[in-house]
C-alpha cells in the first residue's frame, strides 16, 4: 500500500529556515513500492513560487538557449547545468536546505555533493533506454561541510575524474535521483513524455509505470541496481524538467551491492 509522507513534517523535521518551509504547499508526498520504491508528489510548491520557477525556466529558454546543450550521446534532452543557477527561484535546487530535505525523505546519508540540469525534450523525442543511475560521480575539492553544497564543475570530469595535475577530486556514487516537472502547461494523457519505471528489464514484455510530467510534481528514488527507468518519448509538445542527484560515498555502494553492480560510464 502507498504510504503518505506529511511534507509539512519533512520540512520541519530539522531546524530549517522559515523561508524554506514557506515555499512548500505541504501536500502529501506518497511512498510507493511498485515497480520499485519511489516517492511521488503533486503540488510540491505553493502556486506563487512555482509560477516564478516556470517563468525562470521560460526566460532561460529564450535568453540562454545556447546554454542548453546535449545531455549525452543518443539522448534527446538538452540540458542547462544547475551549476549555472546561482540566483533566482531555480537556484533552490542547489541549496543545502533542498539537499537535506531530499536526503531525509530518501533516508539516505548524502555527502553534500550535487549534480543535475534543467532538461528540455523537443516534440517528437524518441524513447530512451532503461538505466538505473547507479553511476559514479567525481567532484572537485574536499568534501563539503554540513552547511555547504558542492556542485560539479569543469575542472573535474564528473564521469571519470579527468583533471589537470594537482587538482584534488573525490569519487562518489549517485545516491538519490529527483525529477521535478515544470513548464509543461496543460499536459494531458496522450501528450507523451512520461517517465517510465520498470520492475525488471530483459524480455521487453513488461508494461512500465508511466509517471506524467505534470507541472509542479516530482518523483524521487534511491539509486539502486533495480531502479530501472527512462524517458518514455513520443511527446507531442516540449517536455521540461529539472533532474538532479544527491551522492553518497562509493564504499557504501560497494559494501551494500558490490563493485560489479556499479554502472561505470
Automatic annotation (TrEMBL):
Pfam families the UniProt entry points to: 2OG-FeII_Oxy_3 (PF13640)
InterPro entries linked: Pro_4_hyd_alph_FE2OG_OXY
Domain of life: Bacteria
Domain Prolyl 4-hydroxylase alpha subunit Fe(2+) 2OG dioxygenase: 170-247
Protein name: 2OG-Fe(II) oxygenase
Organism of this sequence: Nocardia panacis
Classification lineage: Bacteria, Bacillati, Actinomycetota, Actinomycetes, Mycobacteriales
